[in-house]
């Protein structure tokens, strides 16, 4: 199988190793990975901020960047959820109608692709740590992702998964929400991180680097004894 790789902005600019680890896992699973170096943002931030003309321009380029009728895989439920759910509002009954419909059915979040498309539930990883899982809003509510990341984590050798209280509650990032409503966003991060701390976990794991970046900022600011890690980095550990 050949797949196209979509690397979101946060991965590209802040956590590039996560993207590399996703490639490492896919190749171990026998998948050939194709990366279009001309790809850019999917346009989610512009769309969520009300700049729909700019979002449409970015979205049109995004559609052109993935012209092949094959799976597009990304380490971000947020970006993939946006393409799946909101390209309808931008491109319905336009010249891009058929192209965006093709892309919507072909684009997958990484853990969903592993479990439901490749039928892989064990990547052979070893991670000797106690972790708790954060359900990002986009993953849970827009993409419908809940069990797949947990299935993969439970099959990681040495990993102990403990659920935190209110795991489905927003961490406060919400894209530009964290900028526009800093006080509320920080209070939500405080609640999320302390719920994680109560479990005794060493790491907070998620499918979305944006949530992890937000929580990491709070953790570092208050020098708290917990770290964050993207699930792709966990699944590529130990081999």
What are the salient characteristics of this protein?
single chain, 239 residues, Rossmann fold, 4-stranded parallel sheet, 13 helices, globular
- Mean of the pLDDT scores? 94
The unreliable regions are: none
- Report the sheet with the most strands, covering strand number, pairing sense and barrel closure: 4 strands, parallel
Shape: globular
Task: Describe, in plain words, how this protein is organized in 3D.
- This protein has helices at residues 9-13, 16-28, 44-48, 52-65, 77-91, 97-106, 110-117, 137-143, 147-154, 177-180, 182-198, 209-221, 231-235, and strands at 2-5, 32-34, 72-74, 107-109, 130-133, 160-161, 203-206, 227-230.
- It is of the alpha/beta class and 239 residues long.
- The protein has 2 domains: 2-117, no CATH class; 130-235, Rossmann fold.
- The strands form 2 sheets. The chain has a 4-stranded parallel beta sheet, sandwiched between helices. Strands 6-5-7-8 form a 4-stranded parallel beta sheet, with helices on both faces.
- β7, α12 (209-221) and β8 form a beta-alpha-beta unit.
- α5 packs across α8 and α11 (182-198) packs across α12 (209-221).
- The longest helix has 17 residues, at 182-198.
- The chain is globular, with a radius of gyration of 17 Å.
């Amino acid at each position: 199988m050949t797949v196209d790789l979509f690397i979101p902005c946060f991965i590209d600019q802040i956590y590039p190793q996560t993207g590399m680890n996703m490639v490492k896992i896919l190749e171990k699973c026998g998948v050939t990975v194709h990366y279009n170096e001309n790809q850019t943002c999917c346009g989610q931030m512009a769309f969520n901020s009300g700049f729909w003309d700019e979002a449409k321009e970015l979205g049109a380029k995004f559609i052109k960047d993935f012209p092949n009728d094959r799976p597009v895989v990304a380490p971000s439920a947020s970006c993939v959820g946006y393409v799946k759910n909101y390209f309808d509002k931008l491109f319905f009954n336009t010249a891009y109608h058929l192209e965006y419909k093709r892309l919507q059915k072909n684009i997958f979040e990484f853990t969903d692709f592993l479990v439901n498309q490749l039928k892989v539930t064990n990547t052979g990883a070893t991670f000797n740590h106690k972790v708790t899982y954060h359900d990002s809003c986009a993953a849970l509510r827009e993409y419908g992702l809940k069990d797949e990341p947990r299935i993969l984590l439970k099959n990681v050798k040495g990993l102990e998964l403990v659920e935190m209280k209110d795991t489905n509650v927003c961490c406060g990032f919400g894209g530009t929400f964290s900028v526009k409503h800093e006080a509320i966003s920080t209070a939500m991060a405080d609640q999320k991180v302390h719920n994680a701390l109560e479990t005794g976990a060493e790491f907070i794991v998620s499918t979305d680097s944006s949530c992890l970046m937000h929580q990491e900022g709070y953790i570092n600011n208050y020098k708290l004894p917990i770290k964050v890690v993207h699930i792709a980095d966990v699944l590529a550990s130990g081999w």
